[in-house]
Every structure is written in structure tokens, then in C-alpha cells.
Amino acid sequence: MHDVNANRAAQTFAPLTASAVLVNPVGLHARPSVKLTQLAKGFTAKIEIALAAEGPWTDAKSPVKVMRVKAPQGATLHFRVNGPDGEAALAAMLALVHDGFGEA
């Protein structure tokens, strides 16, 4: 007999968190928001962002929700990632922010 719960446990991933300072001049507004969501959609992991470590958390794969964050230059953007490709997703998100979304 196949144990469904054991299979689910094997697919559980520990959430990963990290943060980065927004260095690009416009912060997290329209163009950077689109770049972030496009990158996030390339991963199967659940990716969330927040302006504080305790949240509230926003789905990084939703352009509308990300644009609502409106974080200015110098703000700290917190990431919470959970999924099979979580480490790669988190590294890519941090690299995008550190690179200033290609604008800095």
C-alpha cells in the first residue's frame, strides 16, 4: 500500500529567507516590478516579498501585487521562498536586486 502522507512529507521544503537593499534609483516601481515578476515566474517555488521581515508578504509572481509594494530606493526587500528550486530562485531574486534591476 502506498502511503500518501509519506510522499507529501518527502516533498516538503524548508522556507528560505533573505533580504537585499534596493539600489536602483526608482526603487520597486513599474519596470523593476515587471522584471521581478517575470524572473519569479520562471521558478516553481513559491516566492514572496515584503518590506519587513515579519510581512505582510506579497506574491512575487503577481505584477499588480508587486507594483503595490512601491518600495523606494534604499528600502530593504525581504524574500521568502519555498519549493524544489527555492535556493536557485532566492539566489536569482537577490542577484536581480543587487544588480539594480539592470538600471543602477
UniProtKB/TrEMBL annotation:
Record keywords: Sugar transport, Transport
Record Pfam families: PTS-HPr
The protein's name in its UniProt record: Phosphocarrier protein HPr
Role noted for this protein: General (non sugar-specific) component of the phosphoenolpyruvate-dependent sugar phosphotransferase system (sugar PTS). This major carbohydrate active-transport system catalyzes the phosphorylation of incoming sugar substrates concomitantly with their translocation across the cell membrane. The phosphoryl group from phosphoenolpyruvate (PEP) is transferred to the phosphoryl carrier protein HPr by enzyme I. Phospho-HPr then transfers it to the PTS EIIA domain.
Gene3D superfamilies per record: HPr-like
NCBIfam families per record: PTS_HPr_family (TIGR01003)
Record has Hydrolase as a keyword: no
Ranges for domain HPr: 15-104
